[in-house]
Amino acid sequence: VMNLLGYDAMTLGNHEFDNGTQILADFIAGLNFPVVVSNIDVSEEPLLADKVQEIAILEVGGEQIGVIGLVTAETDILSSPGENVTFNADYVAVVNAAAATLTEQGVNKIIVLTHTGYNVDVEVIPQLENVDIYIGGHSHSLFGNQNNGAVDAYPVVIESKTGPVYYGQAGEKNTYLGRLNVEFDKDGIIVSTSGDTIFLSHYITPDAEALELVSSLDAEVVALREQSINATTDIMLVGERTICRVEECLLGNLIADGMRAETGAQIAIMNSGGIRASIEAGDITLGEVLTVQPFGNLMSTFSASGADVIAALENGVSSLVVADGVVGRADLAGRFPQVSGIRYSFDPNLEAGSRITGVDVLNEDGTYSPIDPVAVYTVVTNNFMRNGGDGYSVLATNAIAPYDFGLVDYDVFQSYLVSLGTVTADNVKVEGRITMVNATVAPLE
């Protein structure tokens, strides 16, 4: 489909590595355009060594266009790139070096494609040289000239060391398409721009050839996704990233409860980055389950000291940023922990690593007792977290007798929903498992 759409180049994001390098290599092998990542070293990974370019030069209308790519250097903790793939976090140095190489080859029109996030991009761009256009991702930020809630105009102009850079993002989930028209003069200077993010509504007529291709591949998948799992919900099960990555949420509680029910562990910890959508009230379909938990992680069970449980929670709240007593809802990290079998409180004003102010463990009689740092508890997470993903390195190093080959996460979630029959406000609720102290969360927009 990407070939049919006529891509000229792409960069990678962290999720391209979720299923390992073999799957990624197979995907790239089917493309008829270059994959450009300038801050990655794949020289020791034979599956990718000849499939990723540091830079690309495109011929467009008789002109040469240079392309540079960046992927977040946190990919090694956010995904599964393997030990043979390394990432350079010095984005400024990487881009300036790549731009210098392109300039030396006579290229005076340079585009940077990134998957590093809005907050990183706006810090990097002012330090760059010889870059003209900067198209971002990772933070799912929506830019636009007519869109309510847009971060900024599309494009927004940010001054670099050598002149203006035109920067934009187009949100997430193919809801919008970014279209940026740029006119250069003979010296490679941008003299005019136009464009916007375009809402991909049902009023847009699909391309017939693309629709036929997708339909031929999608028929069986659609039938499977629309299949009921024989469970319903009377309430909307909230799983939005702007909620679950900063506070307790319904789907976080439900998923974590299911993990604990399936394994019998005392404590369940679920990274909120593994919760990808909400579920509307009504009949629950297999497609909704798979949309909420699309990664296919396995259940990991192990024992851990109370101190290590606390350390894991410290990692989970470490990335939150507070300003004037308010924690924002933008650029939230997926490490934020949803839990079952425990409740915890934290103060985001404190230094990262020392923010947890209390942890209590659920007793069999429904009461809570303070966690004992030296006691050993049975814990369930997913294998991504247990192996250090999302910064949970303490689970990789200190887990006692880990077993990383349990059931698939979405199967566990589905089974728990079926066991409930109907999800109601009585069997899942926001009930004080997570408490933020001395700060508040920004209002939802």
Determine the N-to-C terminus distance: 34 Å
Give the C-alpha Rg. 23 Å
Counting copies of identical and different chains, the oligomeric state is single chain
Task: Kindly state the percentage of residues in helix.
Answer: 25-40%
Shape: globular
Helix count, per DSSP? 13
Total domains:
2
Mean pLDDT, all residues: 95
Report on the biggest sheet. 6 strands, mixed
CATH superfamily membership of the largest domain: 5'-Nucleotidase, C-terminal domain
Structural class by SSE content = alpha/beta
> How many extended strands?
25
Structure description:
The chain has 445 residues and is of the alpha/beta class. The protein has 2 domains: 2-199, Purple Acid Phosphatase, chain A, domain 2 (4-Layer Sandwich), CATH 3.60.21; 229-441, 5'-Nucleotidase, C-terminal domain (5'-nucleotidase,  domain 2, Alpha-Beta Complex). The chain contains 13 helices and 25 strands. The protein has helices at residues 2-5, 20-29, 75-78, 91-104, 118-124, 208-225, 241-244, 250-263, 286-292, 306-317, 383-386, 393-398, 409-420; strands at residues 40-41, 55-60, 63-71, 86-87, 110-115, 133-135, 156-160, 163-168, 176-184, 190-199, 228-233, 267-271, 282-285, 299-305, 322-323, 326-327, 337-340, 342-346, 356-362, 368-370, 376-382, 400-403, 422-423, 434-436, 440-441. The strands form 7 sheets. It has a 6-stranded mixed beta sheet with strand order 2-3-5-6-8-7, covered by helices on one side. A 5-stranded mixed beta sheet has the order 17-12-21-14-22, with helices on both faces. Strands 20-19-18-24 form a 4-stranded mixed beta sheet. Strand 5, helix 5 (118-124) and strand 6 (133-135) form a beta-alpha-beta unit. Helix 8 (250-263) packs across helix 13 (409-420). The two termini are 34 Å apart.
